[in-house]
Design a protein that fits this description.
With 188 residues, the protein is of the alpha+beta class. The protein contains three helices and eleven strands. The protein is elongated and about 65 Å long.
């Protein structure tokens, strides 16, 4: 059905490495894979195997869960996008009380995979959208700081020169050409 690879961490693993919860849900217990250092696993490649046919309106969704936290959606693969490298953004371990027997294992981090309706998913790659959002906020902050240095006050209004956006954009482009690390500072 599907396989996964953790870049620089594993050989390809098939569905047999996961525990099947029901017909459409599988879980990989990270304790059996990396122990408590699950947060060091930052990427996962998931792919559909050749002999598996996923209905066109379905997706294989990937979720991560830190101990005591809820599952968080990371991305998905579909027939049109049969493989993906997803960034695993682990949530902070939660404080949810979990009743366990005295001799049972402590709660562990997990990766969940489930077959879901494609239209119900927010995005196929959540981490990429979050990176774009963070980059846009940093560029906006850069513009705000630039404009703030030219602001004047007229009663209750801030006043900036009419050509402020052109000046900022020109300065932004020139700095990007001069300093190759400048734009890298906006990527996270």
């Amino acid at each position: 059905m599907f396989g996964v690879v953790f870049p620089n961490r594993s050989f390809p693993m098939d569905i047999s490495s996961f525990t099947q919860i029901d017909t459409f849900h599988w879980v990989l217990d990270m304790n059996t894979f990396v122990g408590e250092s699950y947060h060091q696993i930052g990427d996962m490649c998931i792919f559909l195997l050749n002999n598996f046919t996923l209905p066109p309106d379905k997706a294989l969704a990937v979720y991560v869960q830190s101990p005591g936290s809820p599952f968080v959606f990371c991305g998905a693969v579909t027939l049109q996008r049969p493989s993906a490298v997803l960034s695993l953004i682990w949530p902070e371990p939660g404080g949810q009380m979990q009743l366990t027997a005295p001799d049972s294992a402590a709660p562990s981090a997990k990766i969940g995979v489930s077959v879901e309706d494609l239209v119900a998913l927010p995005s196929l790659d959540v981490a990429a959208e979050k990176k774009i959002e963070r980059m846009a906020l940093k560029v906006g902050e850069n513009l705000f700081n630039f404009m703030q240095s030219f602001c004047g006050v007229d009663g209750s209004k801030l006043v900036v020169p009419m050509d402020i956006l052109d000046r900022w954009f020109k300065k932004f482009q020139e700095k990007a050409k001069r300093d190759s690390d400048f734009l890298k500072g906006f990527a996270v």
